[in-house]
Amino acid sequence: WELYGVIIQSLMVTVLVGLAAVALIALVFVPHPFGALVVTPVVGMVYVELLAVLQIAGIHVNSVSAVGLTMSIGLVVDYNMHIVLTYFEIHDAATRDERVKRVLNTMGKSIMLGGFSTFLGVLPLSLSTSEVFRTFFVTFLGIVFLGTGHGLILTPVVLSLIGPHTPPVVAHGDDDDDEKEEELEKEEVVNELPDELNEEVVHISKQHQEAHEMSATTMMNADSSDVGHHSSS
């Protein structure tokens, strides 16, 4: 009976130490302190919601459920930490929404796959008649659905609304310089053409001009012949 006298206090101390560890790790590994302000409250919310899931399932706090609740902190933080970390690794997005979309297109798929594989791993426990296995099944079921739900829905929405974002700076001056350099290179290429090629171009131009003059002369002679023929008639 001593277990039930200290288990509530032990769980409270465990969750506070776990949340402090989550905040410390987020401050160290996430490039922006805002990451710790997002991840830590989300993990605390999932912990409280998991207690509600156990209560709805008719599972009371005991030694087995206490182990699952303690493990939930380390499992849930994984779903949300990756989303936040990937958000701050994207620097060329124009808006927060674009940034979040790219996070979900990359890391979101991995989180969904991880949650689904965990669910498949604990699914056989649902067939057991043991109260211990049933407790673990309900606990991990809540961890998977609540963790992935917050990681793929709540955390991205928060980041899209108030997440730190600095739009990328477009250097128009550099683009103009590049265009000028391309034009200069084209002029240099034209100037560097061989003399033989330049002479060939000039020769072709002269031939084209002479052919045009001969065609015009032929047409004038033909018109003159037609006029003379009509006059003699």
What's the SSE blueprint?
Blueprint: H1 2-29, H2 34-56, H3 63-89, H4 96-122, H5 131-162, H6 172-191, H7 195-232
Sum this structure up briefly.
This protein has 233 residues and is mainly alpha-helical. 84% of the residues lie in helices and 0% in strands. Helix 1 packs antiparallel against helix 2 (34-56) and helix 4 packs antiparallel against helix 5 (131-162).
Description:
- With 233 residues, the protein is mainly alpha-helical.
- Helix content is 84%, strand content 0%.
- The chain has seven helices and no strands.
- It has helices at 2-29, 34-56, 63-89, 96-122, 131-162, 172-191, 195-232.
- Helix 3 packs antiparallel against helix 4.
- The protein is elongated.
- The model is unreliable at 229-233 (pLDDT under 50).
What is the average of the pLDDT values? 82
Q: In whole angstroms, how far apart are the ends?
A: 139 Å
Task: Please count the helical segments.
Answer: 7
Number of beta-strand segments: 0
Name the shape in a single word: elongated
Structural class: mainly alpha
Poorly predicted runs of 5 or more residues: 229-233
Helix content: over 70%
SSE order: HHHHHHH
Strand content: under 5%
Query: Whole-number radius of gyration?
Result: 38 Å
Sheet having the most strands? none
Please name the defining characteristics of this protein.
single chain; about 230 residues; mainly alpha; elongated
